[in-house]
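Quick one: structure tokens for this chain, please?
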Amino acid sequence: MERLRRAVKWKVMEPSRTDVLLWLPGGMRRGWVGGAPGVIEVAGDLSGLDSSVAATPDGAAVFLIWPREGAPYLARTSLLRRRLQRLLREPTQPSRWLNLRAVASRIEYWLVGSRLESVLRFYELAKRHFPEKYLWLVKLRMPPYLKLILSNPFPRTQITTHVGGARAYYYGPFRSRSSAEQFQSQVLDLFQVRRCQDDLLPSALHPGCIYGEMNMCLRPCQEAVSREEYQSEVDRAMEFLSSGGRSLVETIASARDRLSEEMNFEEAARLHKRLEKIQQVLRLRDEVAGDIGRLCGVAVAASAVAGAVELWFFCRGGWQAPVRISFEVVEGKPVSLDQRLREAVASLELKKASVRERQEHLALLARWYYSSWRDGEWIALEGLEQIPYRKLVRAVSRVAGGQAVPG
């Protein structure tokens, strides 16, 4: 113990505002923590540790405490200074509270401006320093999806929490398994796609099931239709999901209006009821649920830097490096927020996520969006070529003014 208390000196290094959003060194494909963190390192006397910790900002942060040997201690906090003082204070009596004063050799911290940034930075640091158990550290629960198994000769649906690389169509993420199952059941009521989970061996002698008797399934098991005819029904269901319901809504609405003009009111009323049922099914979707291959949006969140906001784009299957929008005057001339946003989007360097990264990043999106502690605003996008800049400008202005509206 006496050796550990030898004369050392602690020095505080503040994080660079311009470096915080650089990419990770060493050729790593993705990341948001590659900039210089705030650092407290040993260089002299332990007696200076308390004053150095007292000089750290008392805001939200993600931090690492490196011991002289072994793995670092990783945590996130809403009050950095108070948390470090508790972990590194001089012990006065035996206690069960964790104390790292005697073993700490270096402290690194990243200030964060929002809970979203805190979650994403914690995830990235855990993945970098604890590659074997980072999912356990982050406590990342995979959300449920509606999966259409296209690799099956007679495609069927199922609810899953795993996004794999096999040929399949995924729709989600959903808030809970119960909401995903309810949506699945209602969607299947609109189409004659099978509900059984068996690998079919079609035969005229197959006993079939109740759904076939109720004309809610095309009965491929009994060879009532060919494989091509069944695939056509599956394609209709997949188009319905991909288009957000428009493929059915527009067709049925057009047919209903035509029948009304022809004075065929009974048939028009039947189609109107079907249209209402479809719209009722669409209302069962959770807010960010969609075709995960086309899921795109931007989270507008507060920044740790005064006079700025962070834009977190989600596209190509994952979170992209954040874009900081600053409100400072450039060369004495104000620049319109619309122009800054267009320049920021034009400068984006998009990275495509791997299958595993896509599953984890979707889980991070679901955790943030469906949580009770969500901050900032989410704007769903059809693509980066169709960004509603006026809506984005209003969202940035609200977040910058501390009046963000969840959504």
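The longest strand covers residues 104-111.
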